[in-house]
Amino acid sequence: MQLNEHSATERLAQLGMDDMPVIPFEPKKCSLSPDWFKEYSSLRRKFLESLTDSFEEIAFMNLPQDDFINLVMGKSLPDNLSIRFRIPLLWGGDLDISNMFLCWTFPHSHNMDRFIIEQSDAKTIYLPNPEKKIYVPAHTGGGGEGGNATSDRLSQAAFAMMSERGNE
Questions:
Q1: Per-residue pLDDT for the chain (168 aa), expressed as one digit of tens each?
Q2: DSSP the chain
Q3: pTM of structure
Q4: Domain ranges of the chain
Q5: What is the dihedral of CA 28, 26, 19, 12, to 10 degrees?
Q6: What does the alpha-carbon distance between residue 11 and residue 15 come to, in Å, rounded to a whole number?
Q7: Closest Cα to residue 102, out of 148, 64, 54, 65?
């Protein structure tokens, strides 16, 4: 199905991602180097470590404290979170942090796959392209009046852990 930008954003809204920007892309098949996975594994760790500037988005994911700290320290990726490529590697996407973002596996990553597969016969495919490193839908990202004490506590705990790591 060939979409235009408007119909692509409408379809994403139907899939619960009404604030997800898209980019038009003409897929071209590419091959991957034999050691791509080794390079990806290293890059994945660097990507997780780069999330230290994304405390607010991570806090809105409402992760348990240990998962939050392990994520921002680059130690592990909690269950039901996925690292996605903005432009798939097999279509010429770069193996680079700027081509990666984090989101919930279900429902968001699952629905992004569905959205892309629905366009499989199109010449131009609209790819989800969130503005930040972490995609948290706007309707789940707002705290109530009075702020988010959980976010503050988690941020403070993560900063303390990072400071300890820096002193080792």
A1: 999 999 999 999 999 999 999 999 999 989 999 999 999 999 999 999 999 899 889 988 999 999 998 998 888 999 999 999 999 999 999 999 999 999 999 999 999 999 999 999 999 999 999 999 999 998 765 444 444 444 455 556 555 555 565 555
A2: ----HHHHHHHHHHTT-TT--EEEE--------TTHHHHHHHHHHHHHHGGGG-HHHHHTTT--HHHHHHHHTTS-PPTTEEEEESS-GGGT--SSGGGEEEEEIIIIIHHHHHHHHHTTT-SSEEEE--SSSB---GGGS---TT--HHHHHHHHHHHHHHHHHHT-
A3: 0.82
A4: 5-166
A5: -80
A6: 6
A7: 54
Tell me the two tokens of residue 69. 């700290």
CA triple 105-149-136, angle to 5 deg: 25
